Amino acid sequence: MNSTATHSRLEHMPISLFATVMGLSGLTIATQKAAHLWSWGDLPALALTALTSLVYLLLLTAYTLKWLKYPEAVKHEFHHPIRLSFFPASSIGMILLSIVYLPYQSDVAFYLWAVGASVQLLFTLVILSNWIHHDRFQIQHSNPAWFIPIVGNILVPIAGVELGFVEVSWFFYSIGLMMWLPLLAVLLNRFFFHPMMPAKLLPTLFILIAPPAVGFLSWMKLHDGNLDDVARIFYYFALFTTLLLVSQYKFFVKLDFALPWWAYSFPIAAMSIASFVMLDQIGGTFFSTLSLILYLALVLLMSTLVFKTVNAMIGGRICVPE
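Below the sequence we write its predicted structure tokens.
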């Protein structure tokens, strides 16, 4: 590949590629849970940890180079009404990696968590300010990816509580929870009373699963692992949302592959992890079967996404002008 082609691909590297780290991290954490419940051993989770870490480092390095060499391209993405919401995927990836590393290296987990949470708060403040003081956003720009900059805060307690930062975890959890509900209302208004999103963005509907599923996981952490009524509300609403979206499969199977397909990955992973927690808490055939189905679906989905993404990169269909 010549230098011009390399520079061109770098200039058009989309910030949404960081969603791949969210999906891979989710698969890794789900595999850790599966290994614990089904006595697999640590090897599969350790291999996924190495892969996820490598992908994150490569993406972070590449996007930093893009920022240094093509600052106007980064500025254009940051002012794009849809791509803006994907910038916090970089900090969320770091928070998720802190959860991944927590069972192995608590010191590494702490630094990842501290930096990731700090950058996430910065993104939350900046993006909320952009939403408030704007002259370009329209209702048709709203989509479930808008959850990423705000509701990503709900993830912080999963590692934060175990690291000893309980009040900090409550701070972030409160932001995500209180902003999730009005944002959900905005999106339901958009879905019910305005034209449907472009077909390319339909996979982002699966992001609707993530807030209640992650809300359940963080609530359990904040309450010492006790399964109370609030936790059940989070989990069963996430389960209903999953069923609602799966029942609309005919709208998704017709779509050609594009990077928004990665929006399927982390929400399904979050639902899989939440179901493992329910299995651990309650047991029984229902949660045992559901956990197995969700985990196998997640593995199949991630295998498909990785294959199609690598194939698209080799074929020059990613990191190109749109």
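The domain at 3-314 is CATH 1.50.10.150 (Glycosyltransferase).
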